[in-house]
Amino acid sequence: MRRALAALLITVVVTAATATGCTTGTTRAPNGAAAGTPTLGTVSHPAPGADLPLRLDSYDLSVQQHVEIQNAENRFLRQCMKNYGFDLRTPTTHTLAYPRNMPLLGQLDALRVSRYGYQGPPGVAADLIAVSKNGSWDITVQPALLPVFEGRIARFHGRPVPAGGCFGDMQRRLDAGAPRVRFDSATPAVVPERGIRFFKSQVYDQATHDIRFRRTVAEWSRCMGRKGFRYDSPQRAQGDPRWSSADTGTRPSAVQIRTAVADERCRQAVNYTGTLYSLMSVYEQPVIRAQRRVLQEINGLLRARLRNSFSLTAEP
Q1: Quick check: is 48 in a domain?
Q2: Which domain holds residue 276?
Q3: What was the pLDDT predicted at 13?
Q4: CB-based contacts of 185: which residues, under 8 Å, 6+ apart?
Q5: C-alpha to C-alpha distance for 33 and 25, rounded to whole angstroms
Q6: Which of 118-127, 186-195, 226-235, 307-316 holds the top average pLDDT?
Q7: What letter would DSSP give residue 160?
Q8: How far is it, in rounded angstroms, from Cα 279 to Cα 104?
Q9: Taking the CB of residue 57, how many other CB atoms lie within 10 A of it?
Q10: Could you give the CA distance from residue 293 to residue 49 in angstroms, rounded to a whole number?
Q11: What would the mean pLDDT of 13-23 be, rounded to a whole number?
């Protein structure tokens, strides 16, 4: 049995968004929030499938630009490895026509749950995983290729291997002329080009531990209970092991479809996405103020990588 893509999507989003710790207070402000938490003004009520950008996204490239960079990376790596006699398989990429924050904000619209349940139409769940990773598909490198790919050896069949291998050579070419990203000493080590995702994960973590969001989740759970389903969160429903154990590509069970439809309706009824989006929009403001220099450096790095990707070639 292969793990269902919908459940994997939940894992990707939750794993990426719980990289930082959090604290929650018990003292309450007059509006019912924990004391010291930011004031929440008008809560957004987005239409189904709405594109909901965050201010942090303005420091990032578009998802399609990230895809273009990966296309260039894949071409470079294939050619570089071919120069040493290896056939490197890289993932197939394509345009991703979904809002970049759709997986993070729990929008189920693209899955068309009334017909496909949580697994979505063919290919959609895999695309949403790529969206959640900023237009990125993972490369699997066979063990026999790693010495050249990572530069574990200095020469291969008499031919010099660049420092860091084909991957290291590619990174240096992409980063040529880019500003150095200087994270604060208190910030855990993070791959600079993924820095926006790191800060967004901090904001998500704060928003999802806010008492106002937790009340929304509790309302969602009660809504599901009235429909005969017992889950304490949408993640538990979407990641139910019963869906995870099904073969990829098989028709979803009737109970999965009923659960997913009820889930989507309850999310809409309690304004799950709108509440989370509004809270993230509030929590990101102090992050941007505190990290503006780093965010600008990350943006400069990303734009340099995009420029360099247009001329990225592996010399024979």
Answers
A1: no
A2: 5-14+54-309
A3: 65
A4: none
A5: 9
A6: 226-235
A7: E
A8: 13
A9: 16
A10: 33
A11: 48
Q: 112: which 2 tokens?
A: 């068309």
240 vs 84: CA distance, rounded Å: 45
pLDDT score recorded for residue 250: 81
pLDDT recorded at residue 36: 59
Whether residue 183 is predicted with pLDDT greater than 60 in this model: the reply is yes
Domain-embedded: residue 315: no
Phi and psi at residue 23, in whole multiples of 5°? -130, 145
Residue 6 pLDDT level (bands cut at 50, 70, 90): low
Asked if 298 contacts 193 with a C-beta cutoff of 8 angstroms, the reply is yes
Please give the share of the chain, as a percent, with pLDDT higher than 90.
76
Q: What is the DSSP letter of 34?
A: B
- pLDDT band, very low/low/confident/very high, at 27 (cuts 50, 70, 90): very low
The SS3 assignment for 37 reads coil
Structural domains of the chain, count: 1
Side chain identity at 301, as an amino acid letter? L
Contacts of 155 (CB under 8 A, 6+ apart): 161
Residue with tokens 């599901």, as numbered in its chain: 224
> What pLDDT score was predicted for residue 20?
40
Long-range contacts from 74-78, C-beta under 8 angstroms, 24+ separation: 74/139, 75/312, 75/313, 75/314, 76/166, 76/170, 76/173, 76/312, 76/313, 76/314, 77/139, 77/149, 77/166, 77/167, 77/170, 77/314
Token pair 């929009």 is found at 281
**209 occurs within a structural domain:** yes
| Alpha-carbon span 150 to 237, nearest angstrom | 40
169 in any annotated domain: yes
> How far apart are alpha carbons 263 and 238 in whole angstroms?
8
Is pLDDT at 241 greater than 70 in this prediction?
Answer: yes
Residue 156 has phi, psi (to 5 degrees) of: -135, 115
